[in-house]
Every structure is written in C-alpha cells, then in structure tokens.
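Exercise 7. Predict the joint structure of the components listed below.
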Amino acid sequence: MPEVGILGYGGYIPKYRIRVEEIARVWGKDGIAISRGLSLEEKSVPGLDEDTTTISVEAARNALKCAQIDSKRIGAIYVGSESHVYATKPTGTVVAEAINAPNSIQCADFSFACKAGTAAMQVCIGLVKSHEVDIGLAIGSDTAQSKPGDALEYAAAAGGAAFLIGSDDDMLASFGGTFSYTSDTPDFWRREGTDFPEHGSRFTGKPAYFRHVEQAALGLFKKMNTKADDYDWGVFHSPNGKFPRRVAKTLGFNDDKIKPSLIVDYVGNTYAGSSPLGLAATLDIAKPGHKILVVSYGSGAGSDAFHVEVMKSITEKRKRKPMVQDYMDDKVYIDYAQYAKHRRTIKVE
Amino acid sequence: MSDQSVPMLWRRIKNVYNLVGRLCRTCGTKYFPPIPLCPKCRRKTDFTDYQLSGLGKIYSYTIIHDPPSGFKDLAPYVLALVRLDEGPLVLSQIVEVDNDQLEIGMSVQVVFRRIGDAGRTGVLRYAYKFRPLPEYATGHIIASVEGEEGVMHLEVPMKERKQRSVRKTLEAAGSRVRRRLRRKKKQEEENQKENKASK
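Solution:
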C-alpha cells in the first residue's frame, strides 16, 4: 500500500469569461493574432464578490465532498497563492473555519509565484509521510493580477483546486515521488505595496519556464527510474496555451496526453491554481492504474514535479463533486468595461 | 453588514460561514440566524447547533438599484428571502443570476462570498450567499448530527434529494447515526458489566 496519496480533490472556476479578442480590441491590437500566438481563446474572471479566499473555500468544500471524510481529521491547511487578500492575515484560517476544520491545525499561507499550490502539496505529503498529521489540505488558487494593457492581461485568470492528502486505504491516487528544481531567476515579480506584477518579457521563456520545467521532469524521471512513455497523462503549468504544448513535445509527451490538462485555452492562466486545476481535470478522466506526471512552475524561479498513480476508488469518488469541465461549461461572457469593474481597475467609492 | 464592528463579525463567523443554526430538541424546530430562545417552547427550550444543508428555494425577492454604502459596486443586485429545505427563512443576496430568469420557487444553493466592500484597509467580511442550483450540483452540504462521540458529518447526495426531501434524508441518516451510537454505548456498558463480573 502506498504511503501517501490524494483522498479527495476539487476544483473551482468562477463563472465569468472575457475573450482574448475583446481585450485586444480595447488596446488596438490584433486579437486573432494574439489568440493564435498564445493559444488562448478566453479567460475566467472572478465575480465582484469573489477572491482567492472564496475560491479556496469552494475548492476545499468540493474536495471534502469527494473524500467524504470528517473535516475534524484535517491537521494542516496550506494555501498557495500570489493574490492573498491580506498582506499579513492568512487565507488558510478563513478556509479552516469555512470547512469546519478543528482549531488544532497547522496553517500558513504560501507564496512562490505560480507554484505556491504545489509547494503546499509537497509540505502536506511530507507531514503525512512523517505521521505528523492525519490529513493535510493543500490549495492552490488565485485571482491573477495583471497590468491593464500588458501582455499578461490576455491570460491572467481566476480559479483554484484543493487536495486532501492522507494515507487512508481508499485514496484515489498515490504520490510515488516528487522532485524540485529551483534557481534565482528573476523573470516575474511584484514588489511590496504595488498592485501589478512586472516581468522580463521573452526572458520568461527559455531560461525560466522551459529550463525549470524540463529539469524538474528529468530529475523526477531519474529519481523514479521512469521515462515519458511510462506516463499516460502529463500536466504542465500553463501560463498560456503555447508553453505547455512546447515543453510536452520536448519531454516526449504527445498532444493527446496533455489534452485534459490544457484547460488554459478556455480558462486562462490561473497562476497558483494552474497545475493543481490541470491535475484535477486530468483526475476527472483518468482510469485506475494510469500514471500522471505533474510539473508546476513558479517564477523566481522553481518547478515541482510529481509522480501520481491513479487508484481504484477514483471512479466512485470523483462523481461526488462537480467536474472541472462542469465549471468550464458554466460561463457568462462579459465585455472589457464589466471586466474592469470586476478587477476593480474602476474605483466605485 | 459593512458597518459591523470586528468583535461582532468574529462572533458570527461560525454561523455565517457555514449556515450553522439552532435546533430546538424539545419541538424539533430549526432556526437561522440563531436566536437565544425557542419562541414555541420558551423555558423548555433545549437548543443545539444545527448544520443546515444550504439548499432551498426563493420565497420572495427584490432588486436593489440604490444600495447602501459598501455595496455600490454590486448594484443592481438581488436580495431574496430563501426558504431553506429545513424550514428557516434566510435573507440573502442571490448571485450569478440572470434577472430575467429570477422567479419565486427557484432552487438555490449556498456559496461562500465576500460581503460588501471593506475599502483598501478594512477587515474583509465573508458569509453565505445563494446562487441558482446548477445542473452539475452533486449534493450539499456536510450536515452534522450531534452524538456522544461528537459531531457526525453527513452528506446529502443529490440523487437521493430527487427522490425525497433533504429533510427526510437527513432525518433518516441522523437516526442511523444515533442508532449506531446507541448500539455502541450499550455494547460498552455490557463490556463494563462483564469486566466487573469477572473481577
């Protein structure tokens, strides 16, 4: 029996969408060319009353529905995001209270750009493996920020996923191993007190995203003694639709293997929620026995790679909660003016 | 809610985050928001916390076009009285709804949302709101029944909901838990007796 795995998972994507072409129209750009270049159709936008906390709570409640465990068994809650609503007060405490978790929990907020969610998963895996906690809840969620008119604006989206990590016999997937690759690469950052992140344009590609994702994946292959062909599915952090497709090709994953995780085309880049949501979408369709490679990427920079094996109970458990596809299909389009109001770039009071 | 003090907000967290109301064990009536005394039983009131399912129907509604301060950016928004499946009538905002499709009797489901606007420096307030019940809803919410072992958490699957009311499902599940707890207690008592006898 594997030592540690996923007992339940759940995703959440807000209902509102804006098309890439609509954003391009406002800034006088060629929407079709941008849409094709980034391989992005549209992106999700949080509701006026939604933020990282509410998305985390909805995802965590879905994970609890999936696992059907008593929330009092949770011993740790870690929320990874780069849009935590407070600079000092944690998001995790609100989540804990909203899912009826006990007061005797370990709790902290994580930030590591877009890989804060998978960093939270790694910590929970460690805590469960060392028997420090019974069940850990790891969440990656974001209402991604981007400067109006910036290239990031076409992709920065909202969404998140939560994973209940434990060692129960009826786990729906197991973690075979994890490997991380980290270096000081300043490709994207947001300074304290500023509203929007800055980035190093083309520098975010080769030395940043591709180097870290590839090295983390290769490191995991070596550690687990596996190769790309051993995996049925691949999940790669998706800042746009182009990067994950290219890195998958380099590593030896064909388009079909990454298709379920490429929600980015219609949801956008959910930052810390990106690879967790990709994993959730893949688990929604995977069969028992399938192997999944998950590689996140966080600017600054680092990548976490996971070897996930799907177990028998998944077919029964995943039906208990809404699928990622359900949230993708349930959408309402808004125009740029409404989008500006939703993102609070228009101040009402 | 935006003019609440921080201590007042803190006191209500348990109830407004999770729709925790009160159940009077004397008469079986459920209340939300929690009240200090059961108006039916008065001094015979025997209150316990009760987790509501978060499913209900719109009883009546209005659309707010001229909102109070702190709610300006949300206008026009829908404010409704929601009749929860367990009985209580709750005042709440309805989100993600097309105003043309709004109707009395519409099925709604609880969601967790931010309440009002706290500006750039204030404390953020979160609570329940409701949205039209989506087709993909699989069931809600983890309901609780208080037993001697503590609180037992239960799930109301949507499939069962279609066949019978949440209330009946909950009651049936609740009595299953209670029966199990009673059996367990009886077993323990018998074990104790046996132990004493063997001594």
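Discussion. Chain A is about 35% helix and 25% strand.
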